[in-house]
Design brief:
Xyl_isomerase-like_TIM-brl, Xyl_isomerase-like_sf, two-stranded antiparallel sheet, single chain, IolE/XylAMocC-like, 8-stranded parallel barrel, alpha/beta, TIM Barrel, isomerase, Xylose isomerase
Length: 249
């Protein structure tokens, strides 16, 4: 099973961060996380974010940021300061996935970003929601249609749950994309679009061990929640306790 390390997407605890950034990162570290997925938005809050990361010895191998219509040099300089090696575009809205031409345009933006990122010693990646998997062009998912046009150095961070919501056999999808997939977002639940029904990894319908087996080059499994109906810290703790025994460095 190729899960090498576990991280936490800080979007999961965004509400706590708004009230107490340093205290939230302290609690994340106390739970047992040694890595987080940060964001350009958090970096832009000022030096207190990086100070808190360093104070609690939290690495950030990945950072999320828009990669379209932004100052790419500022984004990649921030990633270098944070210590990330990959910057992931996490949200291209559903209305921009209506045709093959749309998928091509997304690929073109990522390819441009990848060329700029290389000058900073970085990679770029793409993170999906359900619509890139639900939408088909000539029987092929919009995500795969985009991937066909990507430069070879662009990687994927596949949200396994949203891929399932998009109607995919996730392990089969990952097998088809395995040469690109370096990161997985891992949450669980009943496989629907109701964010508040999301559950910690291992408590829902997602076949996580089978999914992990389909990604031989996986670098990090990233715990993430869009929403959670209970105590989010208990949820991210439960996910880590489920995933940690699966780690094989």
């Amino acid at each position: 099973m190729p899960l090498r390390s576990v991280s936490l997407q800080l979007y999961s605890v965004r509400q706590a961060i708004e009230h107490d950034l340093a205290g939230t990162l302290a609690r994340v570290a106390e739970i047992g996380y040694q890595q987080v997925e940060s964001s350009y938005r958090l970096y832009s809050r000022g030096p207190q974010f990086i100070d808190a990361l360093r104070a609690h010895s939290l690495a950030s191998p990945t950072m999320t940021s828009p990669l379209v219509d932004v100052d790419l040099h500022a984004v990649f300089a921030a990633a270098n300061e944070i210590g990330a090696h990959t910057v992931v575009e996490t949200f291209v809205p559903e209305q921009f996935w209506t045709s093959v031409d749309d998928a091509v345009r997304v690929a073109e933006h990522l390819n441009v970003a990848a060329q700029v990122a290389a000058g900073y010693g970085l990679r770029v990646g793409y993170h999906n929601h359900w619509w890139e998997l639900e939408r088909l062009f000539d029987g092929r998912t919009a995500l795969e249609t985009m991937v066909d046009r990507l430069r070879p150095e662009v990687v994927l961070e596949v949200d396994a749950y949203w891929a399932a919501v998009g109607g995919q056999d996730v392990a089969a999808l990952l097998s088809r994309l395995s040469d690109r997939v370096r990161f997985l977002h891992l949450k669980d639940g009943p496989i629907d679009r109701e964010n508040l029904r999301q559950l910690p990894a291992g408590q829902g319908k997602l076949p996580i061990p089978e999914i992990l087996d389909a990604v031989p080059d996986l670098e990090v499994g990233v715990v993430e929640f869009d929403e959670y109906a209970g105590d989010i810290f208990q949820a991210v703790d439960a996910s880590l306790r489920y995933l940690r025994p699966l780690v094989t460095p």
